[in-house]
Every structure is written in structure tokens, then in C-alpha cells.
User: Which sequence fits this backbone?
């Protein structure tokens, strides 16, 4: 039953990510060809500045909301209303700083206007956090999927209109803002059958939110030092064209690194519920399955991404961005580290031990910042990519060490060997097709489909994915059960 519920919601989220990614990459294809490497570099710079404050405004509220609503079932509407009000106020205050800070930096008016619009787009993303937590708690993630697919489709349509009507860089950001606004509205209206979320200010609840958020805010601020330092430093020291080449590869990475957090968001309510209620056996079972499926997602994405990086960037961004393929190959190693870090970090959060991660964030930030500067000065965008690999790897190792000191690792590795075997079979098939892919979109899709098919069949054959889970999934209704039924 547990595997069935997790598997179903993971498949729903994965499907929406695949479809959403397809639309997103279509939009990127329009934008990169329209703006060129230098123009896309300007887009990347403006988006990076706005996202710097958007990430800071995150406050870990998706995780905090997940913790609170799984501990206080009887006050769900009141709690969610307070969380939403806190989210609106905090996001407005923090993200609103981005355009103001831009005036202090040596950027021109067009980038400044882009930061204003990008900040609005990220503000709507921030408001979604509370609704995402609700859908994850009730295992009704098909609602998240609907919002994802519709908004990404609008983004792709808007990208085409930007090109057709020559709307310029600001047109790109207007499209982003409108697509994210629609995404928020869908989340809001689909939540109304599950909870009545309005505006509430309860000082006791806000204090509880702040007490849970501040350790996450501290880690987020430290995380920003190495998460966005690459693009900001690159924009100061290198040409807009180099920023564009790096930013194009990073667009692909942004999509991939969202996957472990989507999956972890589904697992966290289970971990929190079992840990807080003292069900150690259930907690250990969920933790092991969490680990197995994390590795099962990370392995093929990393290896397949490295093999197909060149064709992906040429076909997605155009021939002017061929050099981005090398950047993507390096950054795929960072994706693997993010998967690992996400797993250990969410285990720490499930036990309310996230404060113990702060020293590792401090170490990573202090060591990554000078490394970014040195490598970018000497090696440009490839240096930035390798510095990103270092920072994500350091954090993955740090989070694993923090959990080990709590005695919370204790994992079985037998499934990992079977996943490696399945990945090897997939890789052999994709490598065999690599010489005939060239710049043909159809061949690339065929290679990805073939590799994915072989990998899934191998997982089933090796017993990583249970056949009974698949049979149960086919007969399962779309309305997911409440977490309280677990």
C-alpha cells in the first residue's frame, strides 16, 4: 500500500515534469534563438538577480508547512491561512528588494526592467508553496501536475508570440510573469475543495512558523553564496555571450534539480508523521524506499545527461550554443550531488535537526566563493561549472556526515547495485545511437525513449520496481488517499 501511494504520486509528478519540461525547453529554444548568446546572457543575469532574492524568500516554507499540517490536523484551515498570509508578506518584502538592489549594481536600464518583471514572476512561484504542501500532504499531486502543464504550455505559446511580434527582452519576462500568475491561480482554485485558505494573523502561529523557518533561512542565505555566485561573478568578469552559454546549460539543470525536491516533498509528510508518532519501523521502511528511488532517479539522469549533453544543447538552444554541451556535461555531476544532498537534508528535516546543517553550509559557502572567483577568472564558464560541482558535492557530503552523527544513516545498498546494472544497459543503448543522432530531434527523442524503456524494464527485471506496485497503480483511482490513512 505504501509503495503504491508513493509510486503513483511520483509517476504523476514525473509525468507532469516531463510534459512541463517539454514545453519549457520549447520556450527556451524560442528564447535562445531569438535573443542569441549575448541577449540570453542579459536574460540570465536579470533572472539570476531576481532569483537570488526569490530563493532567500523561500524560507523553507514548503517544508515548514509540511511539518505543521501533518502535526496539527484539527486546525488545518486556520494553520494554512496563517501560512498563506505569512507567505504573502514575507515574499513581498524580500523579493521586492531585488529591483532596488539592482540600481546599486553596474547594469543598464533594460536589465533593471527585467529584474522588476522577473521578481513578479518569482513572487507568484513563492505563493504556490502552501498549496503544494497541502496537495503533497493529501497525496493529490495531480492538481500540481495540472497547474504545471497548463502554465508551461502558456509559456511556450508566449515564447512563440515574443518571436513573432519581436517583443524583445522585456517581452520574455512578461511571458514568464503571466505564465506563473496562471500557475498560482490554478493552485489556488484547485485547493478550495481540500481546505478554505484565506488571510489570517495569529501571533502564536506566526511565531511557530518563524521558529521553524529561521534555521532554513540561514542555510538558504549561505546556500545562495554558492548557488547564484557563479552567474553573478560570471556577469561581472566575462562577456554577456559567455553568460548566455552558461545560462543555457543551467536552464536544463534547473529543470533536473527540481525532480529530487518534488519526490522528497511527497516523502517528507510520511517521514514526519512516522517519526513524530514514534513508528520507527515504518520510518525506516520509508527512509529505505526514499533512498532506493532517489538513486533510481539520479543514476539514469546523470549518466544519460552526460552522454547526450552535446546533442541536447544543440537541439534545444541552437547551433550558437554548441559550447554549452560541455558545460552541461560538467553540471550533470552537480545534479547527482543535489539528489544525494536532497535525500540526507530531508531526513534531517523530518527529525527537526536542520540546525545541525548550518556549519556545513558555512564551510561550503566560505570555500566555494573564492573558488568561483579563481576558476571563473582563469577558465570562464567551464570554471564556474566545476566550482558548482564542488559546492554541491561538499554539501552532499556535509549533510550525510550530519545525519551519520545522529545515527540516522543505516541504509541497505543491495538495490543500488541493481540500479547501476540497469543504468549500464541503458547507457550502452544510448551510446550505440549517439553517432546517428547528430542534430536530428527525432533521433534524440528516440534515443531518450529507448534508453528510458530499457532502464524501466531492467528495473522491473532486477526487482527494483515491484510488479505488484505496477499492477496496483493501473487499477488505482486518481484521488489519492489522505496521509492519515497510511
Assistant:
Amino acid at each position: 500500500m505504501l509503495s503504491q501511494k508513493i509510486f503513483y504520486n511520483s509517476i504523476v509528478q514525473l509525468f507532469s515534469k516531463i510534459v512541463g519540461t517539454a514545453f519549457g525547453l520549447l520556450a527556451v529554444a524560442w528564447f535562445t534563438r531569438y535573443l542569441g548568446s549575448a541577449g540570453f546572457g542579459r536574460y540570465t543575469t536579470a533572472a539570476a538577480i531576481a532569483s537570488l532574492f526569490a530563493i532567500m524568500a523561500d524560507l523553507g516554507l514548503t517544508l515548514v508547512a509540511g511539518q505543521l499540517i501533518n502535526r496539527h490536523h484539527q486546525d488545518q484551515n486556520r494553520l494554512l491561512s496563517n501560512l498563506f498570509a505569512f507567505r504573502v508578506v514575507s515574499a513581498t518584502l524580500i523579493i521586492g528588494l531585488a529591483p532596488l538592489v539592482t540600481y546599486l549594481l553596474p547594469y543598464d536600464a533594460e536589465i533593471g526592467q527585467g529584474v522588476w518583471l522577473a521578481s513578479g514572476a518569482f513572487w507568484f512561484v513563492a505563493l504556490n508553496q502552501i498549496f503544494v504542501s497541502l496537495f503533497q500532504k493529501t497525496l493529490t499531486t495531480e492538481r500540481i501536475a495540472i497547474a504545471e502543464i497548463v502554465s508551461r504550455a502558456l509559456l511556450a505559446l508566449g515564447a512563440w508570440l515574443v518571436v513573432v511580434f519581436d517583443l524583445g527582452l522585456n517581452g520574455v519576462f512578461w511571458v514568464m510573469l503571466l505564465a506563473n500568475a496562471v500557475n498560482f491561480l490554478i493552485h489556488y482554485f484547485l485547493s478550495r475543495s481540500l481546505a478554505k485558505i484565506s488571510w489570517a494573523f495569529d501571533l502564536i502561529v506566526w511565531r511557530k512558523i518563524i521558529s521553524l523557518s529561521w534555521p532554513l533561512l540561514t542555510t538558504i542565505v549561505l546556500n545562495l553564496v554558492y548557488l547564484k555566485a557563479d552567474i553573478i561573478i560570471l556577469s561581472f568578469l566575462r562577456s554577456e555571450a559567455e553568460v548566455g552559454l552558461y545560462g543555457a546549460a543551467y536552464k536544463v539543470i534547473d529543470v533536473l534539480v527540481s525532480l529530487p525536491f518534488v519526490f522528497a516533498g511527497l516523502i517528507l509528510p510520511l517521514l514526519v508523521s512516522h517519526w513524530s508518532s514514534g513508528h520507527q519501523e515504518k520510518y525506516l521502511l520509508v527512509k529505505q524506499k526514499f533512498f532506493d528511488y532517489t538513486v533510481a532517479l539520479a543514476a539514469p539522469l546523470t549518466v544519460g545527461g552526460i552522454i547526450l549533453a552535446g546533442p541536447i544543447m544543440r537541439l534545444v538552444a541552437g547551433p550558437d550554443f554548441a559550447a554549452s554541451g560541455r558545460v552541461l556535461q560538467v553540471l550533470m555531476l552537480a545534479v547527482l550531488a543535489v539528489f544525494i544532498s536532497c535525500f540526507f537534508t530531508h531526513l534531517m528535516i523530518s527529525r527537526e535537526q536542520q540546525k545541525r546543517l548550518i556549519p556545513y553550509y558555512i564551510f561550503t559557502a566560505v570555500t566555494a566563493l573564492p573558488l568561483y572567483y579563481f576558476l571563473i577568472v582563469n577558465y570562464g564558464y567551464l570554471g564556474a561549472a566545476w566550482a558548482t560541482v564542488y559546492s554541491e558535492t561538499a554539501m552532499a557530503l556535509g549533510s550525510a556526515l550530519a545525519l551519520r552523527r545522529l545515527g540516522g544513516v543505516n541504509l541497505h545498498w543491495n538495490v543500488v547495485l541493481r540500479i547501476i546494472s540497469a543504468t549500464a544497459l541503458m547507457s550502452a543503448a544510448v551510446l550505440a545511437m549517439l553517432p546517428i543522432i547528430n542534430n536530428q530531434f527525432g533521433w534524440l527523442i528516440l534515443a531518450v525513449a529507448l534508453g528510458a524503456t530499457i532502464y524501466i524494464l531492467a528495473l522491473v527485471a532486477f526487482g527494483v520496481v515491484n510488479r505488484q506496485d505496477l499492477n496496483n497503480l493501473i487499477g488505482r483511482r486518481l484521488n489519492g488517499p489522505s496521509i492519515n490513512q497510511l
Q: What stands out?
A: The chain has one domain: 2-485.
